[in-house]
Amino acid sequence: MTGTEDDESNKIDFLEEDLENDQDIESNLDSDSSEENSKNSEEEKLEKVHAELEKQKDLTLRAEAELQNVLKRTAREVENAHKYGLERFIQNLLPVVDSLEKAAEASAPDQSEASDTAIEGINLCCKLLVDVLEKEGIKAIDPSGEPFDPSEHQAMSMVENSDLEPNSIAAVVQKGWKLNERLVRPAMVMVVKGNETKPPK
């Protein structure tokens, strides 16, 4: 073999080695990039799982809060039903109490024993009924002489009375009633007029 042929054969061998090295590098790069891609996809999957977990945790907390609100609301409604369940019954019963009180007030003794006994019976029935109502948390509003309170009293008319303070209650036409501090019926009252001072001429 001549020196030229040897040189050419060495060049070919060298080129083949370079080619093999390039192929090895490319295959290594490919494997590295595939590993990196698989790591990236795993990280993305993990992030998605974390996001879904946070979402589910938030939904669970919201559902628990809503359940607590429903339980509190239900407990409050049950308590109100116990406290104010008698309201309609009381409204229907109050005219009976009013009638008994009016009968007791209107009945005047006429010297007969039977009449005195009847009046005493009416008074006793009225007192028993009012006592039963009070035991159930129902209280009368009898504001005679007190200042007028529009949240509990209903003014029927204005009257002049120099003995009482202006805007105070001169007379109670009909008692008011409360059930466990809730107004069932306002007291019907007559209110004292305020002093009207005339402007000087």
Structure, briefly:
The chain contains three helices and six strands.
Describe this structure in words.
The C terminus is likely disordered. Helix content is 62%, strand content 15%. Helix 2 runs antiparallel to helix 3. The protein has 201 residues and is α+β, with helices and mostly antiparallel strands. The chain has 2 domains: 84 residues; 108 residues, Roll (Nucleotide Exchange Factor Grpe, Chain A, domain 2). Strand 4 and strand 5 form a beta hairpin. The strands form 2 sheets. The protein has a 3-stranded antiparallel sheet with strand order 1-4-5. The protein has a 3-stranded mixed sheet with strand order 2-6-3, with no helix packed on it. It is rod-shaped, with a radius of gyration of 48 Å.
Question: What brief labels describe this structure?
Answer:
201 residues, alpha+beta, Nucleotide Exchange Factor Grpe, Chain A, domain 2, 2 domains, 3-stranded mixed sheet, disordered C terminus
Q: What class would the helix/strand composition place it in?
A: alpha+beta
Name the CATH class of the largest domain. Mainly Beta
Measured between the Cα atoms of the first and last residue, the distance is: 149 Å
Instruction: Please tell me how large the radius of gyration is.
Output: 48 Å
The CATH superfamily of the largest domain bears the name: Head domain of nucleotide exchange factor GrpE
Stated plainly, the CATH topology of the largest domain is called Nucleotide Exchange Factor Grpe, Chain A, domain 2
Strand % is 15-25%
Helix content: 55-70%
| Name given to the CATH architecture of the largest domain | Roll
Oligomeric state: single chain
The largest sheet is: 3 strands, antiparallel
- Main β-sheet, spatial strand arrangement: 1-4-5
Query: What spatial form do the alpha-carbon principal axes imply?
Result: rod-shaped
Average of the residue pLDDT scores = 80
Give the low-pLDDT segments.
197-201
- Strands, count: 6
